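Changelog-adjacent note: as of this version, every example in the card shows the full chain rather than a window. The one below runs 99 residues end to end.
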Amino acid sequence: MQRSLKSQAAQIAIDLGQMRWLLFEQTETSISVAMLIVLISWLAIIFMSAGLFAPGNATVIVALMLAALSVAGAIFLILELDMPFDGVIQIPRGPCATP
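Full-length structure tokens:
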């Protein structure tokens, strides 16, 4: 049983090392700039039209601001998670030391 678990643990460690190396090799972004520009323009048009046709009270303004903030946060997370070794949210390039 212990030998079986040891071989499984070794295989998982090898797989993790290969996955880390694959992430390191894929450092260029997979999101095209044109697609990002189209997405942001489309969202800006949606929010401008919603703000244009909605009544101008505090509830609508707060709701539009919260919706715009959540969309901006989602785009930020997509861009951050596309580049795992750079940015605010990142994984270390080398192996992690265990305490």
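Structural remarks: The mean pLDDT is 84.
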